[in-house]
Amino acid sequence: MAQSCFGHGSQLSPVMVNSEKDRASLLCMKALANRGRLDSVSQQMASHPQYLESFLRTQHYILYMDGPLPLHYRHYIAIMAAARHHCRYLVSLHSAQFLRVDGDPLWLQGLEAAPPRLRHLDHINKVLAHQPWLTARSHIQALLKTGEQCWSLAELVQAVVLLAHCHSLCSFVFGSGSDSDSIPTPRVHHGTPPGYCLCDAANGNTALLPPPAGPTEKAPRRRSLDSSCEVAYLREQIQKSQEEIKERKADRLHSQTLSHADVEEEDEAMFSADPSRFVTDPEFGYQEFARREEDHFQVFRVQDYSWEDHGFSLVNRLYSDIGHLLDERFRNVASLPFPHSPDLKRAIWNYIHCIYGIRYDDYDYGEVNRLLERGLKLYIKAVHVNLLVMEARLQAELLYALRAITQYMIA
Amino acid sequence: MRREVTSAANVNNDSTSASPERAHLFIKGQCVIPYEDVNRDRVNVCVTSRTDCHARCNFYLELRLEMEKMTRVSTVNGRTMFCHLDAPANAISVCRDATQVVVAGRNIFKIYGLEEEGFVERLNLRVGRKPSLNFSCADVMWHQMDENLLATAATNGAVVTWNLARSCRNKQEQLFTEHKRTVNKVCFHPTEVNMLLSGSQDGFMKCFDLRKKESVSTFSGQSESVRDVQFSIKDYFTFAASFENGNVQLWDIRRPDRYERMFTAHTGPVFCCDWHPEDRGWLATGGRDKMVKVWDMSTNRVKEIYCVQTIASVARVKWRPERRYHLATCSMMVDHNIYVWDVRRPFIPFATFEEHKDVTTGIVWRNQHDPYYLLSGSKDSTLYQHMFKDASRPVDRANPEGLCFGLFGDLAFAAKESLMTGDVGRKTYPGGDRRYPIFFFKKPDVTEQFAQVSSALSVFESEAGSSVGMDWFINTAKSYLLSGKPFAELCEHNAQVAKKLNRPQESTTWTMLRIMFSEPANPSLSTNHNLNKSGNLPLVNSFSMKEMSAALNERNKENRQDNLHSLETNLNNNDENEETEGSEGQAEYLFGDAELDDDDLYSMEHDNQAEEPEYLLPQEAFPLRHEIMDHPSAPEPVQEKPESPHVSGSETESTCLTPMESINLISVSQLLFSPHLPPKFFCPIVKEMLCYYAEQGDVQMAVSVLIVLGDRIRKEIDELTQEHWYMSYIDLLQRFELWNVSNEVIKLSTCGAIMCLNQASTTLHINCSNCKRPMSNKGWICDRCHQCASVCAVCHHVVKGLFVWCQGCSHGGHLEHVMEWLKQSKHCPAGCGHLCEYT
């Protein structure tokens, strides 16, 4: 059903869209009209319209379309996932959306206020976020064990996809500096965004996005929206925060827990809660996989369990159509025009997988050292690298989670 | 009127063997035996009487046994057996004479001998203290010309050949490290000793001459990773390659620059392909999209000739030797079984092997000319030899006959044709009437035979206007009220409906229910009281034997009125009593107390609360936004538990007193038992009644009562039964296209599983209001004209909820905006000058 709804809708006719830029702005506008706001993540991704399209489609599907989980659960799970990485931006974004879909405001006081079913998810959230190789059959079993608060397999798969999606999105948010974006404002009735008037868009004035109608909107936000499709602007912005990002990036890779001293306290709306409320065991963080290798944790061989051969089939079976959407995302990111050698692309992808303990038999990891030292600066600069990191991470988490589910199903 | 149609069809039959004891099939005194006619490709069914069939039967059976002996390579004398491997297998292959099998995987590379009693380990090819990744095999193939030659595809991208004739322990012969990524497949040429082909994740295929150190040619698919390569068995120079992006390419080994032909075979990766051993142009492919397709390449355009839909992604496909239409498949995920399909019958596997506990990774027919042995390796670290005679046959468990009622009472019946032959007055189905589908039924024999190849379909038409008609059902469904009014009114209404439709039993049931479950007179319930006075509600209150008998006898209204009057006076008395309660006898008081203490028995407070929701107005006709309720997780609707009434002081008094007075009333009617039976008292009998109705086939009654009674009965009946009833009723309603009623039932149901139905498939397809083209995208902006569809004429924002529009000028917008606008102005908000009206 959902497939037919928007499965083939993505082909924009070349006559109507004569440049990538138009395409991007159209996408942004659509997102704007659809959700009533255009978050900065989408703005950043707008430099790669094709990717943005599949990203938005996946996100829309897992958050709003047919699925076993109720809507407010989905947003709450997203909050839990983002909180694990102290991603204030995503936490407040989803808090707002959680309230919008009639979620109980009480839950936002913290994890202990949420129903036990969601609290049970905390463990797998924690593990997936920081040390996905610890994901085991027993976790799945514990969640599915019949009882008052048990999960169904379909629900669990959606939850896992949500978790992985949000964890990896956190990487992107930090990597691209979107975290400092203004706190999202709740939208007004009828789904129209505050401060934006769609009448211009309705009149066909699509080339330029309309100016804000009200004084409520902050100027910088508008600027970023206007120039959302301009890579140059993005680069400029990225360069500005490059140093900071670099630090964070390193942080993310090594400790995964971000100290929040550098994030200035800002006036927060009621719902933009402190992420730590949704976190238990905050000390649990990333630990280098290599160090644990001599322990009993086995290296995950992608030749034995790959997305294409195994993950796809399983996830698609338990949560229909999501496999195709994720597949498209992975394909899109793989086919992004990459200014440097494809080797670098592969090195980044494999390196991210490597730090999560996933190894490729057919890859010489010496290549990583050779390429990444030279390419590390580029690595941080461009958005598409961030995309690459995000997708690699998403796939890594999914692989671990799905393998655990497979093991559960076999047993 | 009765009309009967039958049809029969012959299908090609490829098999030549049958077991004699199955061939005699006596049905209704006749012998039905399949025999082969001159061209041996057709099976006809011969029907003779018992007396003269034996001679011919015997003749054909002997003939057949003779042929069977001739076609068999070896006698079937093995057995289903297995052995444990040390590690999961990725692929297996047999040598030509079918005496040895090689198993390869990440941590295993061994040769096993196939003996009668079991597998015997012959050789371990993983040598060295710390085996390199070259030993980690994704695929293995044993050369079909040279029994000492093996090739493996390594996960690290190496292609390795092994020579078993080498005298040292390390049998490795050649190592090609030309591929950059994992090699997914290696394939020897079927007739050329030194030619080896490989397909890799890097998108290249390479052809090696084993006499040289390097590849002789490289083929670039220009698509994604190569998943399988297979030399054609009949065409010396041709090979097929399947790709991760769904393509299949045909190559000429002499022309590495360009493929000969290419076509898209599957959506998503094509994991495997296999050439038909006999039919030159046939290629079977299996993909992640769970399909097996058979392609005919012999024509100019590649044509899909068969398609089998499996339940999981297809990892391997192998044609069955000596059986033209059979192939075996196994899956990569979730499903651990091996299936053998007859491609002409794609909906049910011909045979299934269910031994493995994890996914099967390699399948191979033991001998190229023997269809009875299948070898398989699996991730569960076992190696199996499957015997065909031990396979399970899903067809045996399938239902051989079909029976179905049509909407208008027609009855269709499909069965083996042989079963129908005894019928008299049967005339052959002309094949012209499209109203009825024809079912072909091929009933397989336990052996390879499809003895029975066709089914007959008979349709019995019902006479027009007969009692089979379901008018009563439709009318009842439309007229019943299930919610929106107080309980008693609902019952009353439904009773009337049933009565009007000439269904006295149902009518009486409703009346009885009303009496049983209506709460007794209760002065503290002002609403009820008022209703009584105004006379809107003929009978609401206490349960009394007199009323019951009145209902049962269907007395006229005067009687009831009388009753009501007396009741009201009694109520008035009650009030007086209340005022002068001090002067009343102690006994009454005690009684009241006792009644109150017994919470379970009777609780006015609870009834009061249960009644309350029914007075709510029905939901607004146009809720602005569809509420999404998460029924599965939400517990129960907010309601006090009956066990926890808390009664305020003043109410307590009246509650205590009322029953006393009623007793007085009833004593006049000469009751033998206490009239204040709690509603719970009736639950068992009501439950029984509901089950009775459901069993009688009147699930409508069961569900309607269930809904109207709501909490009064819901807890008495187990959830599963309720769900079953709801499902049946909803199904019926939908068959009669009573969508509104079915939706109401879904909405009013209390089963989680039922309420979910409303949330599934809620997609609505719309057209753009500007360019009138379908809105293919999920958003609110049309892809084609780049305009916002459905913009509100008042606020110029996109309308996401209800859109109301003027039928005169077709402008409109948000419901409330348009309403507001038209309060102030007569003209259309769009400025078109039309005088719109909102009513």
Automatic annotation (TrEMBL), chain A:
Known catalytic reactions: a hydroperoxide + L-cysteinyl-[protein] = S-hydroxy-L-cysteinyl-[protein] + an alcohol
Keyword Hydrolase attributed: no
Location within or outside the cell: Cytoplasm
InterPro entries (alphabetical): AhpD-like (IPR029032), Sestrin (IPR006730)
Keywords on record: Cytoplasm
Location, primary (coarse class): cytoplasm
One Pfam family of this chain: PA26
UniProt cross-references to Gene3D superfamilies, sorted A to Z: AhpD-like (1.20.1290.10)
Family: Belongs to the sestrin family.
The protein's name in its UniProt record: Sestrin-3
Gene source species: Labeo rohita
Automatic annotation (TrEMBL), chain B:
Cited function: Catalytic component of the GATOR2 complex, a multiprotein complex that acts as an activator of the amino acid-sensing branch of the mTORC1 signaling pathway. The GATOR2 complex indirectly activates mTORC1 through the inhibition of the GATOR1 subcomplex. GATOR2 probably acts as an E3 ubiquitin-protein ligase toward GATOR1. In the presence of abundant amino acids, the GATOR2 complex mediates ubiquitination of the NPRL2 core component of the GATOR1 complex, leading to GATOR1 inactivation. In the absence of amino acids, GATOR2 is inhibited, activating the GATOR1 complex.
Keyword check for rRNA-binding: no
Family, similarity comment: Belongs to the WD repeat WDR24 family.
Keywords (A to Z) from UniProt: Metal-binding, Repeat, WD repeat, Zinc, Zinc-finger
One Pfam entry name: WD40
WD repeats: 176-218, 263-305
Region feature (Disordered): 630-654
Organism: Labeo rohita
Protein name (record): GATOR2 complex protein WDR24
Family matches, as InterPro entries: WD40/YVTN_repeat-like_dom_sf, WD40_repeat_CS, WD40_repeat_dom_sf, WD40_rpt, WDR24
